[in-house]
Amino acid sequence: MPRRGATLTRGIDGCQCPGQDGRVTTATEPTQAVCCSPLQGAPLSAEDAQTLARTVKALADPTRLRLVSLVAAHGGEACVCDLTEPVGLSQPTVSHHLKVLVDAGLMTRDKRGVWAYYALVPGALADLARVLSTP
Predict the structure, then answer these.
(1) Pick from 98, 72, 73, 99: which is nearest to 84 by CA?
(2) pLDDT for position 9
(3) How high is the pLDDT of residue 126?
(4) How far apart are CA 36 and CA 88, in angstroms?
(5) How far is residue 117's CA from residue 127's CA, in Å, rounded to a whole number?
(6) Other beta carbons within 10 Å of 67
(7) SS (HEC) of the chain
């Protein structure tokens, strides 16, 4: 009986390609590795990956996604007082979620008297979609 994990390590050296019969074969010599496709674009740098991860983490919360949608539905700008009731959370909790979105570069904050108004950063969501859809 092979030791645990031995069957896995045999298949990861080289390029794994589906054959014409649908089964996966492994090419271990460079001349056989023609099935591996080259990179189609530049991969993310470490710094860009950090920035993207922070943005994606900010949007990974259902409340924050709703807040982005609500601000967009208000014409791209909304007062925090208009956002508390639709999400069913207190003003401090909503403000915390909005701060996370501001820190991620998705929104801006403008203080007007006692209220804070939040606006979508023009092009931020389009830029995110472009990065995520680039091969």
Answers:
(1) 98
(2) 40
(3) 86
(4) 51
(5) 23
(6) 25
(7) CCCCCHHHHHHCCCEEEECCCCCEEEECCHHHHHHCCCCCCCCCCHHHHHHHHHHHHHHCCHHHHHHHHHHHHCCCEEEHHHCHHHHCCCHHHHHHHHHHHHHCCCEEEEEECCEEEEEECCCHHHHHHHHHHCC
Delineate the domains of the chain, giving CATH numbers in brackets: 6-35 (no CATH), 46-133 (1.10.10.10)
Contact in structure between 91 and 80 (CB atoms under 8 Å): yes
Q: Measure the CA–CA gap between 71 and 85, rounded to whole angstroms.
A: 13
The two structure tokens encoding residue 85? 């009731």
* The pLDDT value given to residue 135: 60
What's residue 48's pLDDT? 82
Q: Report the candidate in 106, 131, 108 with the shortest Cα–Cα distance to residue 42.
A: 131
In the predicted model, residues of the chain with pLDDT beneath 70 are 1-40, 135
pLDDT for the residue numbered 8: 42
